[in-house]
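pasting input
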Amino acid sequence: MQKNAYLGLGLLIVVLIALPFVLPNSYYTDLAIKIAINAIIVIGLNLLIGFAGQISLGHAGFIGIGAYASAVLPAHFGLHPAIAMAVGALTAAVIAGVVAKPIFKLKGNYLAMATLGLGIILNIVLRNEAQWTGGPDGMSVESLSLFGFELSSDKQWYWVVAALLAFSVWASLNIIDSPFGRALRALHGSEVASQVVGVNVVRYKVSIFVLSAVFASFMGSITAHYVGFVTPNIADFFHSIELVTMVVIGGMASIFGSIVGAVLLTALPQALATFEGWETVVFGCVLMLCMIFLPKGLVPTLSAKLGKGE
Amino acid sequence: MSLLEVEDLSIHFGGVKAVQNVSFSIDSGIIYSVIGPNGAGKTTLFNLITGVYQPTSGEIRLDKEMIQGKSPDRLAELGIARTFQNLQICMNMSALENVMIGAHLRLDRNLLKAAMRWPSLRRRDNLLREEAAELMKFVGVEQYIHSRSDSMSYGALKRLEIARALAMKPRIIFLDEPAAGLNPKETIEIDELIRKLSGSGITVVLVEHDMKMVMNLSDRILVLDYGRKLTEGTSAEVRKNPDVIAAYLGTHA
């Protein structure tokens, strides 16, 4: 089972390396970058939702924290972007950690509501603190330089984001197949069984929530630097829902499913643009058909059909 | 020497007194059974001792240490293992992984090391895989070593739970109706397995409805009825006790 997964990682790396030579123009490079950014966030979210079985409807809030840390801290406080990024991730981790303990005493619908509220609060803060964040109009973000080398062209960004994606997949596969990852999956499979073998379930739920928040914040920072501009929309409720949809469509508890979900939900709206005004209807139909015929998500359903687990 | 002592243990759910003032002690190394009619409070008693429920009053001591009110994961650290009457198998994991999770507390659970595929972690996991396969052999489900858990039969899953509990290297194991729903042949196999467990030095506490099995296996038997202790003793003593006969068969007062 694990061998197949690492084989998949090899395949992914080959695709990531080949892609820039196939992509016809910068529009597609831009799309590929956005897909990869979403894929990384969705992988983190899938660790929480698919593997640990806990929902979060507020993850865009953490993306917002990272994005605005990278926008605000260098602009208003002269911090180096790399430090701003770290401060953002740390802030997201602390907020996630502090709110997670009471939140994870809740289950099911209540957990969904609590995380939803958290996301909305973070979004409101970004909208209202206009003297720092520019309010609803957003603000521009300094460009990012690494080791004195400024990231400017799409091609450079592509390589950075592709490397991050490959690394995230590798690290996540490792986590799943480790004592930590088994504990996570066990508390999803049977919470009481995992408790009686010694798994401190609250601690594990909090840890994975914090980890997925850090994934989100970090990629929020990357997005901000790449786009060069942030608005509070990055942290809004619909973005959170979109991410959860990517997890579900691609496949719960499937790392490669996360990538497929990100590809589909990022690229499909663009591809459907030709339908003019009807694109959301077609988009909705595609999602509904996916859920009716592939209820476990694309990758798990298809890999089961091919007779081998991921 | 008594390993587990229960004193005056009670739990009330609203007005329902599911377990009332129950006291007993279990010597190290024996097979101890808890019997009683349906609803007598046997599983509730297990849930109290293993930390799934918090007692309303009373004391539980493991090796002289007070353990009542501790969470299940803390009790696991002290060497208490259990299986469940209604199966609690992680169907999202392979059969082997279900056994491996039993060794949770003996492993390095560091998240960063896990993400970086730390060599020592990998080596330990590989050893554990072999150990878990051995345990599956020990409980007699070796044909499922490479299977998904959701492809296993009910009887095999019952044994898989025992293998998971054994992976904890427990001092005392609580088996909640290990033979329920099994055919006579499987019941005999479970009987043999429990003898093997006991032979390896683990104290076994059993809730079971199969009276033949209980009478054959048990060193001592506790009889519960309506949440109260009816009597306690060897199988010969319990069998002759008129209160027990009345509780099971009914009586014309």
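fyi Chain B has a mean pLDDT of 94.
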